[in-house]
Each structure stands twice: as C-alpha cells, then as structure tokens.
C-alpha cells in the first residue's frame, strides 16, 4: 500500500488545501464529528479511520469513501503507520485517551480530543505538556463553549447587562432514562472502569462555569452519592431482567419501555435503541439485546457505583461563588442557569436568555437559536460550531478559533478532581490552577 506523509499544519498560516482528518474511534461521537466535517468538503476531507468493530468500521469507511489502505482495526495501527492526515479525532474509550493522544502527538498530529481529556489529573498534565512540547494544536470537545447560546450569554455579560457577577446556580438535569441507560446499565456505570460521573458527564459543566465566570476557582466542596439505584431499593417481585419482571409496567426505569419506544419515536430514545442493537432497529434485535445484554438488566440489580446525584460548591477569586447540581431524577432536558449580578439577573435554559434589569425592572428575552431547534439537538449547535472552529483554526491560520487553551482545560479538569476528592474524603479542597488566562482575569480590573 502507498501512504504519503503530510506536512504538519502551520498554525497561524493558511493551509491552502482541505484539512485531512483521521478518526480514531467510529462510535457515536467519532461518527458525528466526521459527518459534521464532511459537510465542508472544500475545507476538510475524512481520509482514515481506526475502529475495532468490523460492522462500524466498514460502514464508516463506506460512508466517507475511505481508501482501504487507510482503514485500521486499531488506533495503534493508525498511530504507527506513516502520517496520513493533518489531524486526528480521538473519540476512543475514556481510559484510552492518554496513550492514544500521546502517540498521535508524537507523530505530529493536531488533535480534536473528546472529553474528558483523561481520567486522572496526571494523564491530563501529560497530554498538555506533550502537546506544548510538540507544538501541536489540541482542542478538547467542550461543545458547550461553542454554542450560539453561550456566545450570546458571554456577549450579554461583556456589555454589562447584569453588572458584576456575584454568584451562579447551574443545574444539569441528566434525565431519568438517560442516567439509567448510561450510568446504571451502560459504559459509564463504574468508577474503576471509567471514572466518576462528575468527570464523564459533567466536566463540560465545570469547564463552562469557568468559561462564563472568567475567574480562577480557588476552593471547592462537594456532596453526593449513589442513593437510589441500589439492591435494597428493588421493588418486591422485581426480576433481574425487565423482560421477566412482573412489575416492569409500573417501573419508570423499564428497559423494555425505553428501547421499544425508541424504535418508534426517534430522538434520544431511538439513539439509545440504536446503541443496544448495534444499529439494527427491529423488535427482534431489541428483544435479543434485552434478553442477553447489559441494557436489559434491572436498574436495582446492576454493578453500578457512580453517584446518582451530586452538588458542587465553588469559590472563585474575588469571592464569586457558584453551585452546580447534577441529578439523575429529572426529565431529559437542557441545563438551567441563573447568574446573579450587581445590576440584574440572567436566566438561561440553553436556548432562551432572560435579562432582568434591577433599575428598570424590565425583563428582556433573547432567543439564541438560529433555526428554532431544541437546545438538545446537536448540543444546541455546539457540535457543528466546534468542528467549524477546529477546521478554521487549522486551515485559515486562525488559532484563536480554538477557544480553550490547554491550560484552561487542565484547570477545569483539576476542579473536577478536587470536587471528587471533597465528595469522597470530606472537607473543603484548594484548587490549583495555572492558566495564564485565568491568572490575568483575576487581577484588579480583569
């Protein structure tokens, strides 16, 4: 086979040709990012894939018309081959991020790295230091930074719509059936196999709070536990699997109802049905998955151990405070935020912003959606905006389009790890932050 090394992208200099992109991990996120990149054929071409699952690998390669010589069944094979792309999307299992990122960085690839950056602080630090030493660009997929909603919110804060920020309340309503799918029955149910739910689900949110507040976090305390999805809460008469359960019809967490509804409704429930059947959306495929796979288990008879609710209290430089709540026990809906300022209050739900002005006592509502779509669709446009920003940063010589300096991302992950330490061990934990941007923002007038 013939594989030709490419020249590294020159940050700050236009590329003058389409960016070439390889994808390591053709699961839901890797496939989504590749499809979004493919919407811009004049700017980006998907040229390689590494994926261990034969069906997913073949489907991905056919969809993007990839040369068979550039289709790999292991990310290691892709990393060890002569360099065949400018950048790599790393959308592997969380625990593989460090080894894979370091290997691709060593080969000179720029990276679009799915969150979390790594499952340990040491792993995050190693990636950050390696990227800086190699001079490659690394964008962490904190899609919430890239939405039109967040950009509009930041613009309102910048124009002093509510004065100086004093405190923030932020809620992530995970959704009862989403939590049951991913964090009770699914891949992110155990800390020893992945990490805490605060990292795997909500590192987005703590990064977003840092981004919005624009000050360095200094102290954190957190509380939370696995309270409900435990064997002692199993209803009388419940079976180990929903297919065999006499009380299944009265259980809000019924796997049978969730995945069979997904066959008909579309949206998130259909996405989950697609996950458990490997893309075969039929009644027989769902029945087989419920009978034999992990997603058919009773939520009270799984091996899960991650917290099903958690609160995080943060103190930032200058005395600004923030509280974050993660809960499994909600409808599946978008985040809710209230920002309390010296001149007013800002309330947001991922699409609409409401500004209440103390002086005029007027409320102004801003619809940040460009097309009237729901906030949950494509992370409110954040997925597409993230990919657009990454492509533009590398092809147009616009490094400013990568919104988070790696040190900012590292600081956000450090906040997560400190909060988890507080939750497990108790007490208030000091947060070590080193981002030059954070330090600059905490100076008087910053």
Could you give a short description of this structure?
This protein is of the alpha/beta class.
Topology of this protein?
Elements: E1 19-24, H1 28-38, E2 44-50, H2 54-63, E3 71-72, H3 75-80, E4 87-90, H4 97-106, E5 110-113, H5 121-134, E6 138-140, H6 148-158, E7 165-173, H7 176-184, H8 197-200, H9 203-213, E8 217-225, H10 255-265, H11 267-277, H12 283-292, E9 309-316, E10 321-327, E11 336-341, E12 344-348, E13 352-357, E14 363-367, H13 382-395, H14 406-425, E15 429-430, H15 436-441
Parallel strand pairs: 1-2, 1-4, 2-3, 4-5, 5-6, 7-10
Antiparallel strand pairs: 7-11, 8-9, 8-15, 9-10, 11-12, 12-13, 13-14
Task: Describe the fold and architecture.
This protein has 15 helices and 15 strands. The strands form two sheets. A nine-stranded mixed β-sheet has the order 14-13-12-11-7-10-9-8-15. A six-stranded parallel β-sheet has the order 3-2-1-4-5-6, with helices on both faces. The N and C termini lie far apart (55 Å). α1 (28-38) crosses α13 (382-395) and α9 (203-213) crosses α14 (406-425). The relative contact order is 0.16. By secondary structure, it is an alpha/beta fold. It folds into three domains: 19-141, Rossmann fold (3-Layer(aba) Sandwich); 145-229 and 305-376 and 405-441, Dihydrodipicolinate Reductase, domain 2 (2-Layer Sandwich); 239-296, no CATH class. Residues 1-6, 372-378 and 436-446 have low confidence and may be disordered. InterPro entries: Gfo/Idh/MocA-like_OxRdtase_C (IPR004104), Gfo/Idh/MocA-like_OxRdtase_N (IPR000683), Gfo/Idh/MocA_Oxidoreductases (IPR051450), NAD(P)-bd_dom_sf (IPR036291).
């Amino acid at each position: 086979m013939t594989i030709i090394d490419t020249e590294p992208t020159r940050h700050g200099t236009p590329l003058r040709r389409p960016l070439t992109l390889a994808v390591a991990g053709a699961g839901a996120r890797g496939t989504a990012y590749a499809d979004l990149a493919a919407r811009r054929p004049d700017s980006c071409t998907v040229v390689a894939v590494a994926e261990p699952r034969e069906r997913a690998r073949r489907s991905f390669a056919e969809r993007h018309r990839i040369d068979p010589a550039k289709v790999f069944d292991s990310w290691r094979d892709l990393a060890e081959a002569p360099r065949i792309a400018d950048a790599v999307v790393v959308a592997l299992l969380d625990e593989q991020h460090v080894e894979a990122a370091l290997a691709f960085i060593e080969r000179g690839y720029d990276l679009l790295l799915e969150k979390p950056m790594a499952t340990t602080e040491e792993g995050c630090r190693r990636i950050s230091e390696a990227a800086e030493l190699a001079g490659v660009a690394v964008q962490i997929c904190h899609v919430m930074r890239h939405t039109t909603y967040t950009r509009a919110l930041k613009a309102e804060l910048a124009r002093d719509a509510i004065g100086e920020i004093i405190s923030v309340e932020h809620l992530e309503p995970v959704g009862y059936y989403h939590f049951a799918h991913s964090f009770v029955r699914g891949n992110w149910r155990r800390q020893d196999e992945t990490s805490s739910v605060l990292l795997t689900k909500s590192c987005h949110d703590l990064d977003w709070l840092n981004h919005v507040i624009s000050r360095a976090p200094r102290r954190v305390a957190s509380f939370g536990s696995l309270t409900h999805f435990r064997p002692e809460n199993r209803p009388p008469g419940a079976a180990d699997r929903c297919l065999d359960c006499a009380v299944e019809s009265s259980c809000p967490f019924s796997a049978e109802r969730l995945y069979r509804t997904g066959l008909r409704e579309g949206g998130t429930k259909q996405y989950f049905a697609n996950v458990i059947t490997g893309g075969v959306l039929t009644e027989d495929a769902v029945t087989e998955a419920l009978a034999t796979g992990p997603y058919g288990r009773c939520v009270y008879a799984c091996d899960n151990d991650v917290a099903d609710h958690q609160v995080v209290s943060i103190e930032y430089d200058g005395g600004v405070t923030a509280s974050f709540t993660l809960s499994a026990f909600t409808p599946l809906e978008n985040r809710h935020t209230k920002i309390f300022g010296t001149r007013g209050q800002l309330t947001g739900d991922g699409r609409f912003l409401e500004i209440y002005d103390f002086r005029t006592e007027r409320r102004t509502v801003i619809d940040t959606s460009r097309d009237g779509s729901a906030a949950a669709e494509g992370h409110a446009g954040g997925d597409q905006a993230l990919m657009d920003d990454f492509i533009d940063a590398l092809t147009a010589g616009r490094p400013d389009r990568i919104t988070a300096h790696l040190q900012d991302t590292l600081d956000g992950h450090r906040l997560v790890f400190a909060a988890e330490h507080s939750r497990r061990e108790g007490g208030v934990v000091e947060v070590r932050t080193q981002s030059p941007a954070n330090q600059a923002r905490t100076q008087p007038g910053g």
